[in-house]
Protein backbone atom coordinates (compact mmCIF):
# COMPACT_ATOMS: atom_id res chain seq x y z
CA UNK A 1 0.00 0.00 0.00
CA UNK A 2 1.28 3.45 -0.91
CA UNK A 3 1.87 5.78 2.05
CA UNK A 4 1.43 9.56 1.89
CA UNK A 5 2.80 11.78 4.64
CA UNK A 6 1.64 15.30 5.51
CA UNK A 7 4.43 17.36 7.05
CA UNK A 8 3.40 20.27 9.26
CA UNK A 9 4.76 22.24 12.21
CA UNK A 10 1.78 21.30 14.43
CA UNK A 11 -0.17 18.07 14.07
CA UNK A 12 -3.51 19.89 14.16
CA UNK A 13 -2.57 22.36 11.40
CA UNK A 14 -4.89 22.13 8.35
CA UNK A 15 -6.80 19.40 10.18
CA UNK A 16 -9.86 19.54 7.91
CA UNK A 17 -7.79 19.51 4.70
CA UNK A 18 -5.66 16.53 5.73
CA UNK A 19 -8.63 14.62 7.10
CA UNK A 20 -10.72 15.08 3.95
CA UNK A 21 -7.82 13.80 1.85
CA UNK A 22 -7.25 10.86 4.19
CA UNK A 23 -10.95 9.88 4.14
CA UNK A 24 -10.76 9.50 0.36
CA UNK A 25 -7.39 7.71 0.33
CA UNK A 26 -8.61 4.16 0.84
CA UNK A 27 -10.22 3.96 -2.61
CA UNK A 28 -6.79 4.65 -4.11
CA UNK A 29 -5.12 2.09 -1.82
CA UNK A 30 -3.22 4.84 0.01
CA UNK A 31 -2.58 5.16 3.74
CA UNK A 32 -2.15 8.69 5.13
CA UNK A 33 0.12 9.89 7.93
CA UNK A 34 0.75 13.29 9.45
CA UNK A 35 3.84 14.27 11.40
CA UNK A 36 6.15 17.07 12.50
CA UNK A 37 9.62 16.92 10.91
CA UNK A 38 11.36 17.36 14.27
CA UNK A 39 9.68 14.17 15.57
CA UNK A 40 12.25 12.10 13.66
CA UNK A 41 14.51 9.80 15.69
CA UNK A 42 17.92 10.48 14.11
CA UNK A 43 19.26 7.02 14.96
CA UNK A 44 16.40 5.06 13.36
CA UNK A 45 14.88 7.74 11.07
CA UNK A 46 11.48 6.73 12.45
CA UNK A 47 8.80 9.38 13.05
CA UNK A 48 6.26 9.94 15.82
CA UNK A 49 2.92 11.08 14.44
CA UNK A 50 -0.52 9.83 13.47
CA UNK A 51 -2.08 7.70 10.76
CA UNK A 52 -5.68 7.90 9.62
CA UNK A 53 -7.68 4.82 10.60
CA UNK A 54 -10.59 4.19 8.23
CA UNK A 55 -12.07 1.71 10.70
CA UNK A 56 -12.16 4.32 13.48
CA UNK A 57 -12.58 7.32 11.13
CA UNK A 58 -9.98 9.32 13.03
CA UNK A 59 -6.26 10.00 13.40
CA UNK A 60 -4.42 7.53 15.66
CA UNK A 61 -0.97 7.90 17.22
CA UNK A 62 1.72 5.76 15.64
CA UNK A 63 5.47 5.40 15.13
CA UNK A 64 6.36 4.84 11.48
CA UNK A 65 9.14 5.06 8.87
CA UNK A 66 9.26 7.86 6.33
CA UNK A 67 6.18 7.59 4.04
CA UNK A 68 6.63 6.85 0.32
CA UNK A 69 5.58 10.35 -0.79
CA UNK A 70 5.68 13.54 1.27
CA UNK A 71 3.37 16.56 1.10
CA UNK A 72 5.22 19.53 2.60
CA UNK A 73 2.74 21.92 4.25
CA UNK A 74 5.17 23.52 6.71
CA UNK A 75 4.75 27.29 7.15
CA UNK A 76 7.86 28.59 8.86
CA UNK A 77 8.25 31.49 11.24
CA UNK A 78 11.32 33.04 12.85
CA UNK A 79 11.29 30.77 15.94
CA UNK A 80 13.68 27.95 16.87
CA UNK A 81 11.16 25.18 16.12
CA UNK A 82 10.63 26.54 12.59
CA UNK A 83 14.37 26.68 11.94
CA UNK A 84 14.81 23.15 13.29
CA UNK A 85 12.05 21.72 11.08
CA UNK A 86 13.20 23.68 8.05
CA UNK A 87 16.66 22.14 8.35
CA UNK A 88 15.23 18.62 8.51
CA UNK A 89 12.92 19.22 5.53
CA UNK A 90 15.81 20.66 3.50
CA UNK A 91 17.85 17.56 4.33
CA UNK A 92 15.01 15.29 3.22
CA UNK A 93 14.62 17.23 -0.04
CA UNK A 94 18.31 16.72 -0.77
CA UNK A 95 18.00 12.92 -0.63
CA UNK A 96 17.55 11.14 -3.97
CA UNK A 97 15.44 8.34 -2.49
CA UNK A 98 12.83 10.64 -0.89
CA UNK A 99 9.83 11.70 -2.99
CA UNK A 100 7.88 14.94 -2.54
CA UNK A 101 4.67 16.05 -4.24
CA UNK A 102 6.43 19.39 -4.80
CA UNK A 103 9.67 20.96 -3.61
CA UNK A 104 8.50 24.51 -2.97
CA UNK A 105 9.87 27.91 -3.97
CA UNK A 106 12.56 30.19 -2.53
CA UNK A 107 11.72 33.48 -0.86
CA UNK A 108 9.94 36.31 -2.64
CA UNK A 109 13.11 38.21 -3.51
CA UNK A 110 14.73 35.24 -5.25
CA UNK A 111 11.46 34.61 -7.05
CA UNK A 112 11.33 38.22 -8.17
CA UNK A 113 14.87 38.03 -9.56
CA UNK A 114 13.95 35.06 -11.75
CA UNK A 115 10.64 36.46 -12.98
CA UNK A 116 12.07 39.93 -13.61
CA UNK A 117 14.39 38.36 -16.19
CA UNK A 118 11.56 36.60 -18.01
CA UNK A 119 8.73 37.49 -20.38
CA UNK A 120 6.58 38.16 -17.29
CA UNK A 121 8.71 41.09 -16.09
CA UNK A 122 6.17 43.70 -17.25
CA UNK A 123 3.60 42.28 -14.81
CA UNK A 124 5.82 42.67 -11.73
CA UNK A 125 5.74 45.67 -9.40
CA UNK A 126 9.25 47.08 -9.05
CA UNK A 127 10.75 45.32 -6.03
CA UNK A 128 13.97 45.93 -4.09
CA UNK A 129 15.53 44.37 -1.03
CA UNK A 130 15.50 46.71 1.97
CA UNK A 131 19.02 47.31 3.23
CA UNK A 132 18.52 50.16 5.71
CA UNK A 133 15.98 52.60 7.18
CA UNK A 134 17.69 55.37 5.20
CA UNK A 135 16.99 53.51 1.96
CA UNK A 136 13.25 53.42 2.79
CA UNK A 137 13.25 57.12 3.62
CA UNK A 138 15.03 57.93 0.37
CA UNK A 139 12.56 55.95 -1.74
CA UNK A 140 9.67 57.68 0.01
CA UNK A 141 10.92 60.92 -1.54
CA UNK A 142 10.47 59.31 -4.97
CA UNK A 143 7.28 57.28 -4.59
CA UNK A 144 5.47 59.09 -1.74
CA UNK A 145 3.65 55.84 -0.92
CA UNK A 146 5.31 52.44 -0.55
CA UNK A 147 4.62 48.91 0.68
CA UNK A 148 6.98 46.87 2.87
CA UNK A 149 6.59 43.08 2.70
CA UNK A 150 8.52 40.35 4.55
CA UNK A 151 10.69 38.39 2.09
CA UNK A 152 9.43 35.15 3.66
CA UNK A 153 5.92 36.30 4.58
CA UNK A 154 2.57 34.66 3.96
CA UNK A 155 -1.15 35.43 4.42
CA UNK A 156 -0.50 39.17 4.29
CA UNK A 157 1.17 39.15 7.72
CA UNK A 158 3.66 41.90 8.46
CA UNK A 159 2.81 44.07 5.44
CA UNK A 160 3.20 47.82 6.03
CA UNK A 161 1.91 50.80 4.06
CA UNK A 162 4.01 53.95 4.49
CA UNK A 163 3.02 57.37 3.14
CA UNK A 164 5.02 60.58 3.19
CA UNK A 165 2.75 63.54 3.87
CA UNK A 166 4.64 66.84 3.92
CA UNK A 167 7.11 66.38 6.79
CA UNK A 168 5.32 63.62 8.67
CA UNK A 169 4.82 59.95 7.85
CA UNK A 170 1.78 57.66 8.11
CA UNK A 171 2.29 53.91 8.69
CA UNK A 172 -0.54 51.37 8.48
CA UNK A 173 -0.75 47.60 8.86
CA UNK A 174 -3.72 45.19 8.83
CA UNK A 175 -4.32 42.95 11.82
CA UNK A 176 -6.95 40.21 12.08
CA UNK A 177 -10.01 42.40 12.59
CA UNK A 178 -8.64 45.94 12.46
CA UNK A 179 -6.16 48.28 10.85
CA UNK A 180 -3.46 49.78 13.05
CA UNK A 181 -2.26 53.25 12.07
CA UNK A 182 0.55 55.40 13.42
CA UNK A 183 1.81 58.88 12.55
CA UNK A 184 5.49 59.85 12.90
CA UNK A 185 5.99 63.60 13.23
CA UNK A 186 9.39 63.63 11.57
CA UNK A 187 11.93 61.45 9.77
CA UNK A 188 14.02 60.78 12.91
CA UNK A 189 11.09 59.07 14.65
CA UNK A 190 10.32 57.08 11.50
CA UNK A 191 13.95 55.98 11.09
CA UNK A 192 14.13 54.84 14.72
CA UNK A 193 10.98 52.74 14.29
CA UNK A 194 12.25 51.28 11.01
CA UNK A 195 15.56 50.37 12.65
CA UNK A 196 13.71 48.23 15.18
CA UNK A 197 11.45 46.69 12.52
CA UNK A 198 14.31 45.68 10.22
CA UNK A 199 16.09 43.85 13.04
CA UNK A 200 13.19 41.38 13.22
CA UNK A 201 13.18 40.09 9.63
CA UNK A 202 14.17 40.80 6.05
CA UNK A 203 11.84 43.05 4.06
CA UNK A 204 11.38 44.02 0.44
CA UNK A 205 9.93 47.31 -0.81
CA UNK A 206 7.48 48.08 -3.62
CA UNK A 207 5.78 51.29 -4.76
CA UNK A 208 2.17 51.31 -3.61
CA UNK A 209 -0.31 50.23 -6.28
CA UNK A 210 -3.95 51.24 -5.88
CA UNK A 211 -5.54 47.86 -6.56
CA UNK A 212 -9.01 48.62 -5.23
CA UNK A 213 -12.56 48.63 -6.52
CA UNK A 214 -14.94 51.60 -6.68
CA UNK A 215 -15.67 51.18 -2.95
CA UNK A 216 -11.97 51.51 -2.04
CA UNK A 217 -11.82 47.81 -1.12
CA UNK A 218 -8.59 46.00 -2.05
CA UNK A 219 -9.15 42.93 -4.19
CA UNK A 220 -7.20 40.38 -6.18
CA UNK A 221 -7.72 37.25 -8.24
CA UNK A 222 -6.52 34.02 -6.60
CA UNK A 223 -5.88 31.21 -9.08
CA UNK A 224 -5.02 27.66 -8.08
CA UNK A 225 -2.79 25.73 -10.48
CA UNK A 226 -1.98 22.04 -10.05
CA UNK A 227 -0.42 19.18 -11.95
CA UNK A 228 -2.81 16.41 -12.92
CA UNK A 229 -1.89 12.73 -12.73
CA UNK A 230 -0.19 13.01 -16.14
CA UNK A 231 2.07 15.78 -14.88
CA UNK A 232 0.35 18.49 -16.93
CA UNK A 233 -0.42 21.86 -15.36
CA UNK A 234 -4.07 22.89 -15.22
CA UNK A 235 -5.89 25.89 -13.78
CA UNK A 236 -8.20 24.32 -11.20
CA UNK A 237 -10.18 27.50 -10.58
CA UNK A 238 -10.20 31.21 -9.76
CA UNK A 239 -11.86 33.36 -7.12
CA UNK A 240 -11.88 37.00 -6.07
CA UNK A 241 -10.61 38.00 -2.62
CA UNK A 242 -12.14 41.31 -1.57
CA UNK A 243 -10.76 43.07 1.50
CA UNK A 244 -12.44 45.54 3.80
CA UNK A 245 -12.75 49.20 2.86
CA UNK A 246 -9.45 51.14 3.05
CA UNK A 247 -7.52 48.05 4.09
CA UNK A 248 -4.09 47.25 2.63
CA UNK A 249 -4.40 43.54 1.87
CA UNK A 250 -7.15 41.29 0.60
CA UNK A 251 -6.11 38.15 2.49
CA UNK A 252 -8.86 36.05 4.08
CA UNK A 253 -6.89 36.05 7.35
CA UNK A 254 -7.39 39.84 7.45
CA UNK A 255 -11.16 39.56 7.08
CA UNK A 256 -11.54 39.52 3.29
CA UNK A 257 -14.56 37.93 1.63
CA UNK A 258 -14.75 35.69 -1.43
CA UNK A 259 -16.56 36.66 -4.63
CA UNK A 260 -17.30 34.44 -7.63
CA UNK A 261 -14.78 35.09 -10.40
CA UNK A 262 -17.22 34.58 -13.28
CA UNK A 263 -19.69 37.08 -11.86
CA UNK A 264 -16.90 39.61 -11.39
CA UNK A 265 -15.43 39.22 -14.87
CA UNK A 266 -18.87 39.58 -16.45
CA UNK A 267 -19.20 42.97 -14.76
CA UNK A 268 -16.21 44.28 -16.73
CA UNK A 269 -16.87 46.00 -20.11
CA UNK A 270 -16.54 43.50 -22.98
CA UNK A 271 -13.36 44.89 -24.53
CA UNK A 272 -11.56 45.15 -21.20
CA UNK A 273 -12.94 41.75 -20.15
CA UNK A 274 -11.29 39.99 -23.09
CA UNK A 275 -8.02 41.82 -22.41
CA UNK A 276 -8.00 40.77 -18.73
CA UNK A 277 -8.83 37.15 -19.55
CA UNK A 278 -6.10 36.96 -22.19
CA UNK A 279 -3.51 38.51 -19.88
CA UNK A 280 -4.37 36.16 -17.01
CA UNK A 281 -4.29 33.16 -19.34
CA UNK A 282 -0.83 34.14 -20.56
CA UNK A 283 0.47 34.57 -17.00
CA UNK A 284 -0.95 31.27 -15.73
CA UNK A 285 0.34 29.31 -18.71
CA UNK A 286 3.82 30.86 -18.49
CA UNK A 287 4.49 30.78 -14.74
CA UNK A 288 4.80 27.02 -14.04
CA UNK A 289 7.16 26.45 -16.98
CA UNK A 290 9.39 29.37 -15.99
CA UNK A 291 9.56 28.30 -12.35
CA UNK A 292 10.33 24.66 -13.06
CA UNK A 293 13.11 25.68 -15.43
CA UNK A 294 14.86 27.46 -12.54
CA UNK A 295 13.76 25.56 -9.43
CA UNK A 296 12.85 22.04 -8.33
CA UNK A 297 9.63 20.32 -9.51
CA UNK A 298 6.35 21.69 -8.15
CA UNK A 299 2.88 20.24 -7.60
CA UNK A 300 0.73 23.33 -7.11
CA UNK A 301 0.78 27.11 -7.17
CA UNK A 302 -1.44 29.84 -5.78
CA UNK A 303 -1.13 32.92 -8.00
CA UNK A 304 -2.47 36.30 -6.86
CA UNK A 305 -3.12 38.83 -9.64
CA UNK A 306 -4.14 42.45 -9.14
CA UNK A 307 -6.12 44.62 -11.55
CA UNK A 308 -5.58 48.38 -11.32
CA UNK A 309 -8.15 51.05 -12.16
CA UNK A 310 -6.51 51.51 -15.57
CA UNK A 311 -6.88 47.72 -16.11
CA UNK A 312 -3.15 47.09 -15.90
CA UNK A 313 -2.40 43.57 -14.61
CA UNK A 314 0.05 42.82 -11.81
CA UNK A 315 1.46 39.59 -10.38
CA UNK A 316 1.25 40.17 -6.63
CA UNK A 317 2.33 36.83 -5.20
CA UNK A 318 3.19 33.26 -6.20
CA UNK A 319 2.83 30.65 -3.47
CA UNK A 320 3.84 26.97 -3.65
CA UNK A 321 1.75 26.09 -0.55
CA UNK A 322 -1.61 27.67 -1.38
CA UNK A 323 -4.79 27.40 0.63
CA UNK A 324 -8.11 26.28 -0.81
CA UNK A 325 -10.65 28.40 1.02
CA UNK A 326 -11.20 30.75 -1.93
CA UNK A 327 -12.19 27.91 -4.27
CA UNK A 328 -14.10 25.92 -1.66
CA UNK A 329 -16.17 29.05 -0.99
CA UNK A 330 -16.72 30.23 -4.58
CA UNK A 331 -16.79 26.82 -6.31
CA UNK A 332 -17.90 24.18 -3.77
CA UNK A 333 -18.44 21.68 -6.61
CA UNK A 334 -14.63 21.39 -6.78
CA UNK A 335 -14.48 19.90 -3.29
CA UNK A 336 -13.86 16.27 -4.25
CA UNK A 337 -11.29 17.24 -6.87
CA UNK A 338 -9.38 19.45 -4.42
CA UNK A 339 -9.18 16.68 -1.83
CA UNK A 340 -8.35 13.89 -4.29
CA UNK A 341 -5.78 15.62 -6.53
CA UNK A 342 -2.87 15.14 -4.05
CA UNK A 343 -3.73 11.42 -3.90
CA UNK A 344 -3.81 11.06 -7.68
CA UNK A 345 -0.53 12.88 -8.10
CA UNK A 346 1.12 10.87 -5.31
CA UNK A 347 0.15 7.66 -7.15
CA UNK A 348 1.54 9.08 -10.39
CA UNK A 349 4.85 9.96 -8.71
CA UNK A 350 5.16 6.45 -7.31
CA UNK A 351 4.27 4.81 -10.62
CA UNK A 352 6.89 6.87 -12.46
CA UNK A 353 9.45 6.05 -9.77
CA UNK A 354 8.83 2.31 -10.19
CA UNK A 355 9.02 2.63 -13.98
CA UNK A 356 12.29 4.57 -13.78
CA UNK A 357 13.72 1.92 -11.45
CA UNK A 358 12.74 -0.90 -13.83
CA UNK A 359 14.31 0.91 -16.79
CA UNK A 360 17.53 1.36 -14.78
CA UNK A 361 17.62 -2.34 -13.87
CA UNK A 362 17.19 -3.44 -17.49
CA UNK A 363 19.64 -0.90 -18.97
From TrEMBL:
Protein name, entry field: YheC/YheD family protein
A Gene Ontology molecular function term of the record: ATP binding
Pfam families listed in its UniProt record: ATPgrasp_YheCD (PF14398)
Organism: Bacillus yapensis
Lineage: Bacteria, Bacillati, Bacillota, Bacilli, Bacillales
Coiled coil spans: none
Amino acid sequence: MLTLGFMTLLLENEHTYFTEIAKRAHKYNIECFRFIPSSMDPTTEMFEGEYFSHQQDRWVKKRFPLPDVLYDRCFYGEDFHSRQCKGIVSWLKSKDNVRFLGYGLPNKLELYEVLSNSNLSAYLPKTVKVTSPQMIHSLLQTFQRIILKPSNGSQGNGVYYIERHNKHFIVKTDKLDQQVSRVFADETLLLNWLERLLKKKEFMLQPYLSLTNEHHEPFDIRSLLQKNRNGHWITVGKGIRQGKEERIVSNLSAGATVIDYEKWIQSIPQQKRNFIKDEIKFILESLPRLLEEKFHPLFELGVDIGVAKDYSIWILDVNSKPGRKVLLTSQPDLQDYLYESPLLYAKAIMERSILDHEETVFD
